Amino acid sequence: MLNRDLFIPTGSYDIEQALGCPGLPEGVISTLVGGPDSGKTPFSIHLAAQCQRLGGMVTIIDSEACYEPSWMDTIGVTEKGLEVIDPSEESFSVEWCFELIRQICASRHGKRRPSASHLVVWDTFSQTPTESEQDPSKGGGLGEHARITSKALRTLVGCLSRSRTTLLCVLQPRLNVQIGRQFGPPSERYIAYREWFHAAVIQLQM
Fold first, then answer.
1. Are 196 and 150 in contact (CB under 8 A)?
2. Model confidence at 52: pLDDT above 80
3. Sequence-separated (6 or more) residues with CB below 8 Å from residue 108
4. Which residues does 81 contact at the CB level (< 8 Å), separation at least 6?
5. What is the DSSP letter of 178?
6. Predicted confidence band at 187 (pLDDT cuts at 50, 70, 90)?
7. So what's the pLDDT on residue 176?
8. How far is CA 50 from CA 15, 46, 138, 164, in A?
9. Edge-first strand listing for the sheet containing 82-85
10. pTM of this structure
């Protein structure tokens, strides 16, 4: 018999039946994959409302600046116990977001046993720039998102588990336009998809 106290309900009976458990497990990485306008953001907000209903905290890394307080309040998310990080932060980057998640885990790990879970929603990872994209003098290159993600996830898995922090990463495909291609639509690709795929315990596709 599964202990429901170790899960964050999704609010959807069908999703939980498909998962075979009463929601997203605490202390692990989950991914939410889908194209534009597929319902990823509303699902994330519903999950945040469920987490708050159980007394948990919610942090949203809003890379697209699409979370409106009035809309979230309608769904059931309250300002108490909610922190929204938007791109207006001066040092907003992939590296900075990973460090923010580490700090959240470290602040909770100092307690004997957190009484409630902490949900971190990263929406969307694909739209978050790296430091080298903001400052070309720092170098970088192809596959930089994947290198940074692979290194960060190896250290995050243990921190999330010890601090009862659940990370939900939203992934959205980018159009991959190939130069010289004359026929057919442009293909789609996910940034650092393999790294998130191997690290995630739950993978949802909208």
1. no
2. yes
3. 114, 118, 163, 164, 165
4. 52, 56, 57, 58
5. P
6. low
7. 58
8. 14, 6, 41, 15
9. 82-85, 57-62, 118-123, 165-171, 29-33, 202-205
10. 0.87
CB 148 within 8 A of CB 130: yes
Do residues 122 and 61 lie in contact, with contact meaning Cβ atoms separated by under 8 Å?
A: yes
How large a percentage of the chain has pLDDT more than 90?
A: 27
Q: What is the per-residue pLDDT across 171-185, written as a single tens digit (0 to 9) for each?
A: 987 655 555 555 555
CA-to-CA distance for 83 and 80, rounded, in angstroms? 9
Please, which residues bridge with residue 25 across strands? 7
- Beta strands (DSSP E) in 71-117 are 82-85
The per-type count for the chain, helices as H runs and strands as E runs, is: 7, 10
From the CA atom positions of the chain, what is the Rg in Å? 17
